Each structure stands twice: as C-alpha cells, then as structure tokens.
Amino acid sequence: SLYELSIILKFVAFDLACQMLFRFYIGGLLGLEMQVLANYLLIAWSVFRNGFVIIALMMNSHIYTFFVWQSAVSFIFFIIALAYLNGVVFGEKRSISVKFEIKFEIIKEYWRFAVGMLLISVVAAINTQIDKFFIANLIPEISYALKDL
Q1: 1, 29, 81, 121: least surrounded by Cβ within 10 Å?
Q2: Rg (CA), the chain
Q3: Within a 10 A sphere around the Cβ of 72, how many other Cβ atoms?
Q4: For the whole model, what pTM was predicted?
Q5: Measured distance CA(136)–CA(134) in Å, rounded
C-alpha cells in the first residue's frame, strides 16, 4: 500500500542520511591517514549491514525488518565512526559530542578535499540505496503475485 511505501521511504531517507555522515567521518579518517581503521570500519559495516540482516530476517521476515536493520546498522556505525574520529582528532579523553565551529581559513585550505569527499559520499550512499528503491516499488506487484499462488 501507499502507507507502507511511505514508511519504507522514511527508513531509506534516514539510512541515507546516516550513511552520508558515516562516509563523511570515514573520509576524515582517510584524510588523517588512518586507512586501516577506516577499512576495518567499512568491512564491519558491510558485514553487519549485508550479512547479519539474514539473521534478522529469519527472526522476522517482514519487509520492515530489512529496512529497520539497514537503518539501525548505518546509525550505529555512524556513531562509531564519529567516536573514532573524535578520538583521533581530540584525543581519548573527549567523549562523543559534536561541537560546530566554522574556521574559514581551514575551509579555504581544504575545500577541494572536502568537496571531493562529499561527492564520493553522496555517490556511495545513492549506490547502496538504489536496490531498495526498486524493491519498494515492487512491493505491490509482489503481494499481487503471492495472492495468485
């Protein structure tokens, strides 16, 4: 139904936002030459997101389970990447927090890198979400096909 589709699209939008933030922080770790840590996070995120979703679907095979799982994993790994980046930049004594401060001299120096990382994050997030848009659009057809069986 249209209501189910709207709920699924809300989960996809939340997941997309979390992925963009996660990939932004991964870009920060890469920029600080922490490639090994960034790759560990990306591998773990991929395993939890795409591998362990099977366990969640075996426990509850509803379509919402898939989208809730994807969103939850992206949110958790966004927080983990934020914590690691805070630890690298500010030291271990600082807890997870976000303090917004704009320093234009830094922006002038590194804007090309930041724009490049933003574009990579947007393309990667869209690439990982495209299949979900197709699945969400097929929900009415799938339910009609199952009724015929």
Answers
A1: 1
A2: 18
A3: 17
A4: 0.61
A5: 5
Of the candidates 135, 127, 134, the residue with the CA atom closest to the CA atom of residue 19: 127
CA distance 36 to 22: 16
Distances (CA, A) of 70 to 47, 66, 86, 110: 11, 6, 24, 32
Residue carrying structure tokens 């690691």: 84
What would the two tokens of residue 101 be? 């401060």
**What pLDDT, in 10s, does the model give residues 81-109?**
999 988 887 776 555 555 667 777 877 88
Residue type, 7: I
CB 129 within 8 A of CB 16: yes
Closest among 118, 142, 12, 109 to 69, alpha carbons compared: 12
- Using alpha carbons only, give the angle 24, 27, 28 rounded to the nearest 5 degrees: 90
